[in-house]
Write a structure and sequence with these properties.
Elements: H1 8-18, H2 33-43, E1 48-52, E2 55-58, E3 65-66, H3 75-81, H4 84-87, H5 113-120, H6 124-128, E4 131-136, E5 139-144, H7 149-166, H8 171-174, E6 200-202, H9 230-238, E7 241-243, E8 254-257, H10 259-268
Antiparallel strand pairs: 1-2, 2-3, 4-5, 6-8, 7-8
Helix pairs in contact: 2-10, 7-9
C-alpha cells in the first residue's frame, strides 16, 4: 500500500504512523513543484510571467525570485524565512467540512515575503496607493485592487449577502470586521502579515479562536471548538480565500487571498470533505 492510493485522511495518518514524512510536510500524492509553480503563475496573471531555470519571472521585467533556494528548514524556519517552494508545500483542504490538521500542518500560513511585496507593494505607502473602499455589511473596508483581491472579496460579500437574506443570524459572525489593511508583522514573527498588503480580512472576533489567545505554544496548541458556520468558510474559499481555522496554529477569524493553494488542492484531488 502506497501513499498515492490512500484517501486524504488515510494519507495523513499513514504519513505519521509510518514516518514517511514529518508532520505538516507534503504527502506523496501531491503535485510536483513545477505544477505548483504553474498554479501560482496562473493565480496572479497581472504580475507573474513564467518560471525559468528555477526562478520566477515578472511581467515588469524586475529581478526574478529564486523558487527553491535549497535550504532545509524546519517548520518554524519556514514560517519566518520560507522560500517560494516552502510557501506552496502544504496542501490546503478547502470545502464545507471542518478539518483538524496534524501537528504543524499550517497550509498557507507559510508565505514568502519577497513575493508578496512584488504582488502587492514593497512598502505601506505603495500598498496604500492601490487600496480601494469596499462596503462590508454597512462598514467601509480598504482592500487592495491588485491581483483582483477587491473583486474577489466583493464576490464573497455578495454571496454572503444572499446567505444572510436566507439566514439573518449569519450576519453577526461577519460584522463588525476586525480589519483588513494593517502594515504590521505577524505576531511573534519577523515577517509581514498578509494584512500588510490589503489582501486579508478578519471577521467578528467575538466568535474567534486564536492559538495564542488559547494559551498555545509554537508546536503545541490546544484544540478548539469552531464557532463560525462552515457556510461562511465555504463561500470565502470559493473565491480564493483560505481560512486560518484550517491551520494547526489556528486563527479562525482570519481569511486571506491565496487562490494558488486552491488550485494546487484541486490538482491533488484533496478537499476538506474527502473521507
Amino acid at each position: 500500500m502506497t501513499a498515492g492510493v490512500l484517501k486524504y485522511g488515510q494519507r495523513l495518518l499513514a504519513a505519521a504512523v509510518f514516518g514517511w514524512l514529518p508532520a505538516g510536510a507534503v504527502l506523496a500524492a501531491a503535485p510536483s513543484l513545477e505544477a505548483r509553480v504553474a498554479a501560482l503563475i496562473a493565480a496572479y496573471p497581472e504580475t507573474l510571467s513564467t518560471a525559468e531555470d528555477g526562478k520566477l519571472l515578472f511581467k515588469d521585467g524586475g529581478p526574478p525570485l529564486v523558487i527553491d533556494d535549497g535550504r532545509k528548514r524546519d517548520h518554524f524556519e519556514r514560517l519566518a524565512t520560507g522560500d517560494i517552494a516552502d510557501s506552496l508545500e502544504q496542501i490546503y483542504p478547502a470545502g464545507a467540512c471542518e478539518t483538524r490538521p496534524v501537528r504543524n500542518d499550517d497550509p498557507g500560513r507559510i508565505r514568502n515575503e519577497a513575493l508578496l511585496k512584488r504582488l502587492f507593494g514593497a512598502s505601506a505607502k505603495a500598498v496604500a496607493a492601490d487600496l480601494v473602499k469596499l462596503d462590508w455589511f454597512g462598514e467601509s473596508l480598504r482592500v487592495t485592487k491588485r491581483q483582483g483581491v477587491n473583486r474577489a472579496l466583493q464576490a464573497v460579500r455578495d454571496d454572503l449577502t444572499a446567505a444572510v437574506q436566507t439566514d439573518p443570524a449569519l450576519k453577526r459572525y461577519l460584522t463588525p470586521s476586525s480589519g483588513t489593511f494593517n502594515w504590521r508583522k505577524v505576531a511573534g514573527q519577523p515577517n509581514l502579515s498578509v494584512h500588510s498588503f490589503g489582501a486579508a480580512i478578519d471577521i467578528n472576533t467575538r466568535f474567534a479562536n486564536y492559538w495564542v489567545w488559547s494559551g498555545g505554544k509554537p508546536g503545541k496548541v490546544p484544540t478548539y471548538d469552531n464557532q463560525y458556520p462552515m457556510l461562511i468558510v465555504d463561500i470565502f474559499e470559493r473565491h480564493g480565500f483560505i481560512w486560518g481555522g484550517r491551520w494547526y496554529h489556528y486563527d479562525t477569524m482570519h481569511f486571506e487571498y491565496r487562490p494558488e493553494l486552491m488550485a494546487i488542492a484541486r490538482q491533488a484531488g484533496i478537499s476538506a470533505c474527502t473521507p
